[in-house]
Amino acid sequence: MRSSVESALTAFGGDVSELLGELDAGLGGADLELLSLLLLPARRERLRREWVVPAGGAAAVHDDWEQFEALLRILSDYLHDGVTLRQPLADALDLLAEDLESEAAERGAAGLNHALFESGRFAANHEEEDEPENYDLAHVLAGHPSNAIGLGLIFLLVARRLEIDAEGISLPRSFLCRFHEDGEVILTEPVMNGRRVMPEDLAHRIRRYPREVRAIAARPASPGELLVRVVEELATAWSVRGETEDAELMEELLATLVKAPF
User: Fold this and answer.
1) Which DSSP string do the residues of 81-139 spell out, in sequence order?
2) Spatial CA neighbour of 229 closest among 188, 170, 177
3) Residue 15 carries which DSSP code?
4) What ranges in the chain are assigned the alpha helix state H?
5) pLDDT digits (tens, 9 = 90+) for 228-239
6) Residue 146, beta-bridge partner list
7) What is the pLDDT of residues 92-117, one digit of tens each?
8) Is 53 helix (H, G, I), strand (E, B) or coil?
């Protein structure tokens, strides 16, 4: 019976949220949870079908922010529960950028950092840093907390829409945003309410890392590198939870990006 229901649901691509909204079905929490579980196989197959990466893998995505965002959107659709109505990732980013346009025009990247993190608009998920939903950026934009990489990506993607020059510094278990203000290099840490990080503090952190990690942490992360990190961390998160099928799916995606773990 379950197999027949799952098969019938594949026609919806793993997402019936708009249909449920139109029907006003009034399903309870347990029913929605079961329906989401039944939709999961279709979301997995949709991810496999839509995941298109250039032949060069992560290196080919190097500075292609549009391709990067498109792949993040596909991941968000996969991570979505399929039953909760929400805005698509691109639309949510557009609306957020529009909302912050005046403050960003007045104060630049510092104003954006304040509006997103210092104000408390987006919060950190310190208790479950490896929760897969942290990487569902559409979920985060709907008002849910995220981890260091999730919050950092929100900053970078909104900054690009507002034509603000900003870079991401990828650190183990953390992520910094770097920009210029009055000729000075500013580092902020979104996951810590956007607090400012002094250059000497960053240098101290980097000294503790292995040489290969120090080389990555000393320069801005490219979209290709950020994509690899997101997929790797999702693979680890699913593996730790014993969700073998989802972990193996992430390994499939990773194989399209790199020949060996990044």
Assistant:
1) -SSS----HHHHHHHHHHHTHHHHHHHHHHHHHIIIIITSSS-B--TTTT-GGGG-HHH
2) 170
3) -
4) 2-9, 17-23, 29-50, 65-79, 89-99, 101-113, 137-141, 148-161, 199-207, 211-217, 223-240, 244-257
5) 999 999 999 999
6) 124
7) 999 999 999 999 999 999 999 999 99
8) coil
